[in-house]
Amino acid sequence: MSTNQVIQEERRGLILQLLCKVPQYTASEAVIYSHLHQMGCPTSWEVLQGEIVWLEEQGLIVADWPGGFAIAKITRKGQDCADGNTKHSGVATPLPFP
Predict the structure, then answer these.
(1) Average pLDDT, whole number, for the chain?
(2) Residue 5 belongs to what H/E stretch?
(3) What is the per-residue pLDDT across 26-36, written as a single tens digit (0 to 9) for each?
(4) Whole-model pTM above 0.90?
(5) Helix (H) or strand (E) holding 19
(6) Between 20 and 30 A from 97 (CA), which of 21, 66, 68, 76?
(7) Structural Rg of the chain based on CA atoms
């Protein structure tokens, strides 16, 4: 697995984990962008929008695009993936913490 693929999978996992923790399981693209930077996974706006589209195509989130900016909400399938209850190809599995 390439370094870029590892980073991509980690970024997707971080997005799902964030959406599990925010009110109404929903966050704007700007909140997600800020969270990724705070978690040591900086990304461009273009890449972030691509990840949101990909996660939606996989059924892990649903997204609305008012004004061209995403509002993402996690699905049950996405919650299971974020919690490590199921695995999804292309998304990092969360590590257990003591």
Answers:
(1) 94
(2) helix 3-21
(3) 999 999 999 99
(4) yes
(5) helix 3-21
(6) 76
(7) 12
